[in-house]
Design brief:
This protein is α/β, with parallel strands linked by helices and about 230 residues long. The protein is built from 7 helices and 8 strands, in the order αβααββββαβαβαβα.
């Protein structure tokens, strides 16, 4: 990293390594129905459990807005297969370190520093969700694959970010590990029909299991490539 004594502040941008090394430069919210895996996803990406307060732990739901920072890295080796060449870690990780893939020999370089805003999904906590949406640069809409789509807060949260004209939305079909392939495909079609004509009409739908950290690298890659 460049010596801080010779840094020209007029040339710094949100993606300058000198900036990203020390602070998050983009806010991404998690939205969706209660118990669809928003907090679990944030923990999979950042290593931070945003469910912290006693009443949240007792009820196993998010009640207050949760915050967690994560650094996103990309391997320098062009032969390192994607999406595994992308990783996310907690914000105390070094700017660069050796790639963990056996035999790769590349170096993981910091490419993004993200602050996640974990919103509650319960219907009585919509005001809290709206407060979180006000600071979002992008949103990840979680939809549990083991339930019909849409659920009430799936619709309400999407309508909320649409009202705020939030353009960068990623749809995550979570909990695919709990259903069969044909069920997942049918549910995928339900999501497509649900977002048709909305601000999320052209958004990608990425199947994941936040609990098992399945396909999390694909989410990380999409954040890097498509969210400014």
């Amino acid at each position: 990293m460049a010596d801080s004594t010779v840094i020209d502040p007029t040339k710094l941008t949100p993606t300058s390594i000198e900036v990203m090394a020390n602070q998050a430069t983009i806010n991404i919210g998690t939205i969706g129905h209660v118990a669809h895996g928003k907090s679990t996803l944030v923990k999979a990406l950042s290593g931070v459990n945003t469910v912290r307060f006693k009443n949240e732990l007792e009820r196993n739901i998010t009640i207050k807005l949760g915050y967690a920072n994560a650094k996103i890295y990309k391997c320098s080796n062009a032969e390192c297969p994607r999406p595994g060449c992308f990783k996310s870690f907690s914000s105390d990780k070094a700017v660069e370190f050796p790639c963990e893939r056996s035999g790769c020999g590349g170096t993981m370089h910091l490419v993004r520093h993200v602050s996640f805003v974990d919103c509650p999904g319960h219907d009585v906590l919509m005001a809290t969700m709206l407060n979180g949406a006000a600071v979002m640069d992008a949103a990840m809409l979680l939809v549990a694959a083991n339930e019909m789509c849409p659920q009430p807060q799936t619709s309400e949260h999407l309508a909320a970010v649409e009202t705020m004209k939030l353009e960068n939305i990623i749809i995550l079909q979570n909990k695919v590990d709990l259903i069969r392939e044909e069920q997942a495909l049918k549910h995928y079609e339900q999501i497509q029909n649900f977002v048709k004509g909305t601000i999320a009409d052209q958004s990608p739908i990425i199947p994941i299991s936040a609990q098992l950290k399945f396909n999390i690298e694909a989410v990380v890659e999409y954040i890097y490539r498509n969210i400014p």
